[in-house]
Amino acid sequence: MNPLMKFAIVMVIALELTFIKSVTINLIIIGVSAFLYLFLKLSWKQWLWLFILPLLPGFGSWFSLMYFGTGDHVHMAWVMLTRVFAYLWLGGLFTLKLTEERDVFLATLEQKAKLSATFVYALVGVLNFMPAVNQQIKTIRVASQMRGQTLHIWQAQLYFKAILSAIRWSQNLAEGMVSHGFTEGAPRTHLQVVSIAKRDWLILIIILIAFQLLLIPNWY
Amino acid sequence: MSYVVTNLIVEDVHFSYPTGKVLSHVSLKLKPNSFNLLVGPSGSGKSTLLKLLSGLYPTFSGGTLDGKLTLDGYDIVPFQRVARLGYLFQNPTRQFVMQTPFEELRFSLENLQVTPTDMTDRIEKVLETVGMTDFTHHDLSTLSGGEKQKIALAAALAMDSEYLLLDEPFANVDPVARLQLIQAIKHYQQQGKTILITDHDWSGYTDMIDDVFVMNHGHLHQADEAERTKILHEVPIQTQIKTALPNEQEHIIELKKVALKNGTRQLLRNTSLAIPKEKRILITGPNGVGKSTLFSTLVKLYPYSGLITYNQQDIAKRKIAQHVRDIALVFQNAEQQFVAMTMAEELIQAQQFSNHPEIWTDETITEILTQLNLVDLRQHVVYQLSGGQQKKLQVLLMLIVGTPTLLFDEPLAGLDNDSQQCLLNIIADFTTRQHQTVLVISHQLQAVTDWFDFHLHFENEQLSYVGGEV
């Protein structure tokens, strides 16, 4: 399925969840997500993150509502706890596979969602730069140690160098884009033309309608 | 292939920053289908001229441009400009947007609105031309400086523009690859293209050069017949590097069964050897073989397997802050070495942390700056110096710090002959006085025939001493 379509489904459902005060619906979302994860072949590390990440915010709001809330607080405590899990597990359906689908996602944004190519390629550049950031910080520290100066994590100079190199890098990116013929607003051709299959639209419509139907009964 | 003649007009061009004039009264006329060489000392304005021609300046630099500089009239947007005029940066690390060579070339061709069905063929063809087919889908950040330069050239060739501007395209390229790239450029010119190249060493393509232009302190003139002949004869003669094999000496660094990897690519396999103390050692080898990686390893910036010792201590057990006070890297990219804003601040910082403050008095520094033509630039921001000036300043700073072992990664790349000789003399003088061990990666071999004590060659996953009685 095209990642942009996935993104759309996830966003719509997540938005609706914000207004739905139902533990059952949240549990259904979590259950369906978990079922889908079985097919996505996650690594054990990813499973671990899925369980650990929602714990703190989830139980945080659970405790505060349970013991300090008023009114319908017991119900809301459970809603909040399950909602945090539902958000994360639902979002994970999109984000956990994003590394592999990044190029298609960005290409869809450019070609189908008609997002400005300048924005898309700036984003591509930034994403390609991310893995280098850690190494860059390390190199900056060692480079200044070679000059006799130790820059500590709390020293502004370290960040000054890092920001400086980020500025240099963004300038280089802009120059690189221009020297390779990129022009803001000009038409471009595409080696890989992204097409969204009819099936994807069908799935999107079915899922969203099914979800709305699910909301009709008065769940706990 | 288009045969529309593009008209590049450069007449009475002036360019200046608030800090000073860079170019004055520059006029340039390139004959169609000619091969032109632009020479001049580092910092004379060669790169600035090329960047102005390519349209990157003054958009990205600021500064004031006067005079007539047009490419078929004025309003040419980048993709139209690139279709007529391609440009290759001096610094290979700076010009990529995408993650792999294939994607980068695809990005360029998409910008030029090339028909998708032609793209893959065109990409494969140029990558073959520069000998990088095996790296089509490799991550660009794992490629060596020389390999990146080949990809950048491939991108320029793929765009098939009428004019090709090359700024020191061979500075980080090994001699074999250099000949390969020269052939590729020659072939490109034979298709009716016009080439403008800046270089300090034109051996291997002297016979291809039509016109020679000389840049001096921002003034440009075309060399007349006599000057042209004189310049073209200044080709450095390729000589044998004269070194001996090391015998029993005191060792400073020892490698025991060391292996290095770059992703899945094996760089060094099971290598054991020793580096003698207070000597000058040259390291050569083809692009991408792992020379820079070896240096990164020695300063603990890169993982390895096996045992490496410094002064008989396992470097894995040494604290990095202490380790790099004994053995420091002079980075290939000069900007990484700077810690302050202006040259004056950099020099004060280096003096403050010098291991030999008695040698580095203010007078000595002024004298050396004069020799390196840097003395008037003290108040300049280091990031705004030219590539060559940055390199010279960087080397000077590291000499002032006076670390016992210095690893120089291509200290001569992009410098003119005079600057190279001058810098080598300064390095030799001060490293001897400060009892330093010096390791140098260099492709500029003609400058260093008698300079080194020993010579390590890195090839086929092996690092070994060469030289001795031939």
From TrEMBL, chain A:
Q: Where in the cell is it found?
A: Membrane
**Major place of localization?**
membrane
Classification of source organism: Bacteria, Bacillati, Bacillota, Bacilli, Lactobacillales
- The answer to whether UniProt assigns keyword Cell inner membrane to this entry is no
Q: What CDD domains does the database record attribute to this sequence?
A: EcfT (cd16914)
**Protein's UniProt name:** Thiamin ABC transporter permease
Membrane-crossing residues? 7-40, 46-69, 76-95, 201-219
May I have one GO cellular component term? plasma membrane
Q: Does the keyword Membrane apply?
A: yes
Return the InterPro entries for the record. Answer: ABC/ECF_trnsptr_transmembrane
Q: Membrane topology type, per the record?
A: Multi-pass membrane protein
Question: What domain of life does the native source organism fall in?
Answer: Bacteria
The alphabetized UniProt keywords are: Membrane, Transmembrane, Transmembrane helix
